Amino acid sequence: xxxxxxxxxxxxxxxxxxxxxxxxxxxxFDVRKGEIVGIVGxxxxxxxxxxxxxxxxxxxxxxxxQGEVRFKGDDLLQLxxxxxxxxxxxxxxxxxxxPMQTHNPVLSIGQQMLDxxxxxxxxxxxxxxxxxxxxxxxxxxxxxxxxxxFPHEFSGGxxxxxxxxxxxxxxxxxxxxxxxxxxxxxTLEVQIIERLQELQQEFDCAILFISHHLGVIAELCDRVVxxxxxxxxxxxxVREIFHDPKHPYTRRLIDCDxxxxxxxxxxxxxxxxxxxxxxxxxxxxxxxxxxxxxxPRCAAEVPPLTQLKDGHHAACxxxxxxAAE
Length: 325
Ligand code: SF4
Ligand code: MG
Hints:
Elements: E1 3-16, E2 19-32, E3 36-40, H1 47-55, E4 62-71, E5 74-75, H2 81-87, E6 92-95, H3 109-116, H4 124-137, H5 143-146, H6 156-168, E7 174-178, H7 186-203, E8 206-211, H8 214-220, E9 223-228, E10 231-237, H9 238-243, H10 248-256, H11 296-300, E11 306-309, E12 312-314
Parallel strand pairs: 3-8, 3-9, 6-7, 7-8
Antiparallel strand pairs: 1-2, 1-4, 4-5, 9-10, 10-12, 11-12
Helix pairs in contact: 4-6, 6-7
Iron/sulfur cluster binds at residues 247-248, 285, 287-288, 291, 293-295, 298, 303, 316-318.
């Protein structure tokens, strides 16, 4: 099959002094080989928990309540830690919002890129050449000479490119990009997005791109998963979701962030009201306190994530004909 990653009915809690915090509820979506999938949502929507669950780098108070995270058919939640370690950084790589999380400040970029190749049997000169080639691929000018420089000698945008180069060195099947452009200005953001598109083609890896900007997702991704308060509100093809959003939350996100990323103001989406307390979830639809189309049924029953057409899913009673009755 061409499915690479399958998140299947994943529910994850954090055990806290205040009770169980329901960080993810019944999350399902998949990423096909070579595809770019965006995950969008406000802070606190579960994006970080989702990433750490996929990589199995969760905090000790995490409880996997239900579901599977299948990668090339294996349930990652069941793999021995040793195999997980082999997967991380080899088959699945990650780029963080802050590239300094990747870079060691006291080692030259070249040394760090040699270290990444520690499993390779190539000579040092070959590994260095490969490092320079990767820097070139992400658009670092004069890469050979810059290998001997240290992270602080590069600009923020360059450091993020280098982090991407490092993440791609192992030729992963899946690159997880966790808000990689959020800390950059709009011009640099566009450059990184365009570069990621090229690299996706060149390396034929799938990308799971996490962002709170729908504009960036629209530019880069094939499909999008809209998350709200730990659950999927809507998912489907980017074109379809922008043209015909089926969840009021998605509509609000689009209204907040309508522009092409080159023109848009760099503001976070602001939607009146607050994300519900995940330790004390209300019954019914979790979006209902912020929804201007809420009906009596929305308070009584949780709307299920339902397929509307090919691959387009939404969790909202407005899409159920019987809801109006
Ligand atoms: Fe709004 Fe009801 Fe749809 Fe929830 S189910 S998003 S409250 S209309
Ligand atoms: Mg986060």
